[in-house]
Structure formats: structure tokens, C-alpha cells
DNA sequence: ACCATATGAATGAACG
DNA sequence: CGTTCATTCATATGGT
């Protein structure tokens, strides 16, 4: 949460990632109203209409326009609209995927269960902004290490190296012996000495 | 989705999560079922500091170094660092672009009684458009009642790495107003003026 | 009160 | 780089 921390500083989970000393006391709600956006009925209605009309991934401009219009019905920010569409779309697909699972159960098809079709666009004007390329390999099928392994291997998976795809860009490192250094010392009362992170950049 | 992540460890349970609607009980908390990198508070802090110090696109070497150092606090890979910076940078811009509007035109109809509309509470420590100099910003996870005070010392060696690289080019108004428009009129009940939501998408 | 669900918000990972 | 997807966390709300 560098700067995320939306909802002000209200009740953010004390330390969820640290894993240490799970502070779990979340019971007290202290129902501060202004914690997260609570859309009004009208806002939801408009958003739903837009979604049903086929709008799935509004651009930044669209988001702002929508937000502006909806602000008439109550407090709203652009990011709310953004998240709304993100969530709505994701949840719909999520549900869809769950349903599509049972069908695979019948066929016992070892191959990939074929991703759910993505033609749920109800375009009012036959427009097609994004060709909808969500072709994520939802494969990831059961991580069952054992069991009937009848997966047809077309080609060895770990044949070619493919070490770090994310490093494909990185041009030649021009690390110079610069004097500028950034030292960050974080000392926690843990069982380790204060780490002295010293990086030279530029 | 490879999920292999160079090594293939963690047999992450394939989204079982009680069947649906993640979250749920608060008890789940840090399931810490590794499937994807879950940075620790210390790691996030260091990364954030580096970012604040001006590091935006670390080179391969820098990524390696950072990853090495941060591995002390928990499992981490180079690609995590790489992605972290990518995301952080992208989201900052994205957010800033979104926040820019929607504050001027607030019709703010007295539909909702209570609502001290200071919708700036979302960013407790708003980022720094102006030159950033204050490094006493340890404002993360403020709700930590624990006595675990992390002593983060940041001392510039030469001079504070004044992040001058804030001269990112802004591709202003690259989008043209298309004539395709979608009008959504929601005037079901007459309890509100017939809002004519007209959005031009695509 | 607790539990269950719905949903807003955040972010890691990846794609184009 | 900007965008998109998936997953997870957090919270508001309603049912029992």
C-alpha cells in the first residue's frame, strides 16, 4: 500500500502481509461511513444499463464522463466507475467460468475445457471496441500432482529454456559507477541485523 | 498461465475459496498460500522508498540487487521487482489522470443527508506533483498499534536524489471526439430530471 | 451475535 | 507503457 490506502486511514488491516503477529482484531467496525463508495440506486441503474448496452471497458474519457453524469445522484469518483466496470465484468466471467466447469465434468475431457465464449457483448450499434482478446489460458487446471495423467503432450513443456520473459526488454545495462547511492536501512526487532540496502542508480 | 515461475513450487489451490465470492470471513486473512508473490511490509516499504527516491525503471542489475536484498525479508524473485515497478509507475499515472477531473463539477444534490464531502480522503498522503523533499513519510499501516516500530533511515549520500525524471511526456488529448454516440436515457421514475446520459465511446 | 453473500478496492501478473 | 485479467482483501448488508 504505498499510496493506495484508499478509504483514508480508517481501518486498514494492521498487517496482513507481514504474516507476523496476526493482529486480527477487526471486530470493531466503528462504522465510519466514508470508507468506500456506496452507489445510489440511480447510479447502479445507470451503470447497469451501460453495461447491458455493451459497455464493458470504458476508456478514461468515458469513465470521466460517466462519473460526471453520475455525480448528480451523489458522490462518486472516477475510480469508482472504473472499479465498477472492472468488477462487474470480472464477476460475470467468474460466474460463467464456474458454470462451465460442470460441463467439463460430464465429458471428462482431458484437454483444456475451452474457455467460455466471450460473445456476451450486447452491442447496441454493432460496435466492437476491443476485439476481446481475453484468451487467457485458464488452463491451470487442477494442480493435482497425482491422479490420472492423460494429458496429451504435444511438445515438451520444459524443452526450451525461456528463462525470463519479463527480461526481454531490458537493454544493455549501463551501470555506471556512480556515486549516487541510496541507502535504506530497515531495522526491525527481528532476528536479523539491520539490512543495509545500498543501491547505486544512475 | 505458466504458473511455473521458474521452478514450479507452491501447489496453489485452484481458486477453491469456499466456492465463490472470495474474501468472506475475515479469518482468512493472510492465507499466505503462495500462488503469487505476497510482498511483506518491509519489502513494500523499501520498494516504495526507492520509487519515491526517483527510481522508476530499474535496470536488470538493479533489479537483481534489489531482489537480492529484499529476499532477506521473504521470498521474492527478480520478476516481482520488475513488475512492481512497472505497476507502480503505470498506476500512478493512471490514477492521476483519473483524479484530475470530477472535482469541479459536483452538482451534489441533497439526496443524501449526511456526507461531508471531502472526497480527498482517499489519498492521505497525496503524491507529490511538486518537488518532493520530505522523507519523513512513514505513513504506512498507521493502524499498527504494535510496538514494532520500524526504523527506516534514509540518508542521502551526496544529496537527496532529487527525482528530476518527472518530466514524462504527456500525450495530451490524443483522443478525438468520435461521432458515434450512445444515449442512455434513464427516466423511469420521474423522481429525478430525465438525465440524458450521452457518451461517445469508441 | 454470527454467518453468508455481494461488492468496492487493491494489486500482482501479463498482454499488445 | 498503457491496459486488461485474475485473485484477494475489506466492508456493507441481510438473513437465521
TrEMBL record, chains A, B:
Biased composition (Basic and acidic residues): 116-126
Organism: Carnegiea gigantea
Gene3D superfamilies from the UniProt entry: Homeodomain-like
PROSITE patterns (alphabetical): HOMEOBOX_2 (PS50071)
A Pfam family: Homeodomain
Positions of region (Disordered): 13-35, 93-128
Molecular function GO labels: DNA binding; DNA-binding transcription factor activity
Listed name of the protein: Homeobox domain-containing protein
Annotation: DNA-binding region: 32-96
Recorded family membership: Belongs to the WUS homeobox family.
Biased composition (Gly residues): 19-32
GO biological process: plant organ development
Keywords of the record: Developmental protein, DNA-binding, Homeobox, Nucleus, Transcription, Transcription regulation
GO cellular component, one term: nucleus
Residues annotated as domain Homeobox: 30-95
Localization in the cell: Nucleus
Amino acid at each position: 500500500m504505498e499510496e493506495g490506502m484508499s478509504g483514508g486511514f480508517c481501518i486498514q488491516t494492521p498487517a496482513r502481509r507481514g504474516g507476523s503477529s496476526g493482529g486480527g482484531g477487526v471486530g470493531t467496525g466503528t462504522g465510519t461511513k466514508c470508507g468506500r463508495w456506496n452507489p445510489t440506486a440511480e447510479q447502479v441503474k445507470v451503470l447497469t444499463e451501460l453495461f447491458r448496452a455493451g459497455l464493458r471497458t470504458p476508456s478514461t474519457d468515458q469513465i470521466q464522463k460517466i462519473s460526471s453524469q453520475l455525480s448528480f445522484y451523489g458522490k462518486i469518483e472516477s475510480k469508482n466507475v472504473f472499479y465498477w466496470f472492472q468488477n462487474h465484468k470480472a464477476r460475470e466471467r467468474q460466474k460463467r467460468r464456474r458454470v462451465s466447469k460442470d460441463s467439463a465434468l460430464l465429458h471428462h475431457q482431458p484437454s483444456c475445457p475451452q474457455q467460455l465464449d466471450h460473445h456476451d457483448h450486447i452491442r447496441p450499434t454493432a460496435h466492437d471496441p476491443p476485439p476481446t482478446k481475453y484468451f487467457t489460458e485458464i488452463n491451470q487446471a487442477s494442480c493435482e500432482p497425482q491422479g490420472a495423467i492423460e494429458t496429451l503432450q504435444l511438445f515438451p513443456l520444459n524443452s526450451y529454456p525461456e528463462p525470463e520473459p519479463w527480461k526481454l526488454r531490458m537493454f544493455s545495462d549501463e551501470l555506471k559507477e556512480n556515486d549516487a547511492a541510496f541507502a535504506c536501512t530497515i531495522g526491525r526487532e527481528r532476528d536479523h541485523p539491520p539490512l543495509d540496502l545500498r543501491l547505486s542508480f544512475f
